[in-house]
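[job 4471] stage=fold_predict status=RUNNING
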Amino acid sequence: MTAIGLSSEPRERRITIARVIGLRCVIALFIGFQFCDILGLRINASPSLPLGLYVTSSEPGANLVEFCPAEPFASLALSRGYRDPGACSDGGAPLLKPVVARAGDLVEMSTVGIAVNGHLLPNTAPLRRDTKGRALTSWPVGRYTVKPGFVWVASSYSPRSFDSRYFGPVATSSIRDHVKPLLTMR
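[job 4471] inference complete, writing structure tokens
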């Protein structure tokens, strides 16, 4: 006669319990993300900005924008894993970047980085390869006056940010929200 204990539960029952727990976790995450969206909260885990919690804002000083990139850059970023799946029309997550130039500003794109109105922004030199060794094509070198209805975005926080140094100006119509830091790890 063998002793029957908790460890001898039928395998099917353990699998069922694991599935129920997994489903509940997925539902909780989904509700949590929906709740964050309703409250205007954004979570940044990308290296382009400090890790943390950001909040949507209508304040003029909210210099960060959340936007869906244009094609073909949207597909490139999604296929290479620069963006996670998300709410943009292409199925990718929006990008969160600082605005560095607005209508009327003079942007100079060069191999050493992005200069705005004669001021070179740190960490904006375009890279030739990403972290996996894949070729990157930068926006053409030259001087650009930002046209109405467009902005340039770039992270001086990280030299590896996928931003206007690769895809140029961003249409303001693609901006979903303006955000500001709420709680970040810097």
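[job 4471] summary: The radius of gyration is 22 Å.
[job 4471] exit 0
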